[in-house]
Amino acid sequence: MYPCSNNDRLQRRMAAALLAGFAIAPVAMAAEETFPARPVHVYVPFAAGNTLDNALRQVAEEFRKSTGQPMIIDNKPGGAGIVAAQAAARAPADGYSLLLVNTSMLSVNPHTFKEKLPYDAERSYRQITGFVGSTLVLAANKTVPSNNLQEFAQWARSQKAPVNYASFTVGNSSHFAGVILNEKLGLNLIHVPFNGTPSAVQNLIGGQVNTAFLPLIAVKQQVDSGRLKVLGVSSPRRSELLPNVPTFAEQGVPEMNIYIWSGFAAPASTPDSVVNRLNDEINKILGSPELRARWRDMDFEPMPMSPKEFTEFVREESQRWRKVVEVSGFKIED
What we know:
Layout: H1 6-33, E1 40-44, H2 51-67, E2 71-75, H3 82-89, E3 97-102, H4 103-112, E4 125-141, H5 149-158, E5 164-167, H6 173-185, E6 190-193, H7 197-206, E7 211-215, H8 216-224, E8 228-233, E9 259-267, H9 272-286, H10 289-296, E10 301-302, H11 307-328
Parallel strand pairs: 1-2, 1-3, 5-6, 5-7
Antiparallel strand pairs: 3-9, 4-7, 4-8, 4-9, 4-10
Helix pairs in contact: 2-9, 4-11, 6-11
């Protein structure tokens, strides 16, 4: 047998490497093409059981049907969304760890916490798409002798005792909606924050507070029963759930067009291909006529967007709330 030359050995090594490359390449391509290949976790900034959590779980079920992989909801309440936000920011940027973002986390917190915020609202995440938006309403106790915004403003100005409004927590859109209304109508409504929507509703019904800025769905049952009234809705058009209640814009305060919104984001370095795949899958689900019909009764409007559109939307919302926070003078204390 003749000994192999150096050239023969080199050619054999090149051939082996080429064959190995052909063997590996399909695996790598398949891994990318089959994303997701394992469960996708979504960090959620609130406890399980509320209406938004239920809607998200419906999306998760449709995601499983479409991709063959579960979408696992990981509820991490606390700290104005900071607990969930930090968990997502520290997760691997591979598309398997997502964050359910909302108005407070990305558009309000940066201006109330400022340098104390342990994540960067723009740089820590890549926006994927919107989820749902819902309406904020100015609800009033039935003893308030007003049926619209103008009547309420006149009544509030005439009172010797302070007129107040509740929010479902301090430092978010339900809090700062009152700041906008005070500025635009020249009122001096006193803010009374509560720890969650149920306690705010309970105190509104009991008369401990005069009014409250709350999600429409939170007060709909009490409005139908006559225990509460709604003086205005924050949506750009009248709600199908309360078609006789005018919008704030109709009543001369377009600055009160406020959506309580949520969306999906991923850690900052998540690849374009993964972000686009997630965008396609989630937007397909959000376009489901069945889900849209089901969510209509919950006052949820799907908000499918491209990653670029959602990024711009979040940035615009942040600028809007920055100005409101500055007017309020509010900041998170140590």
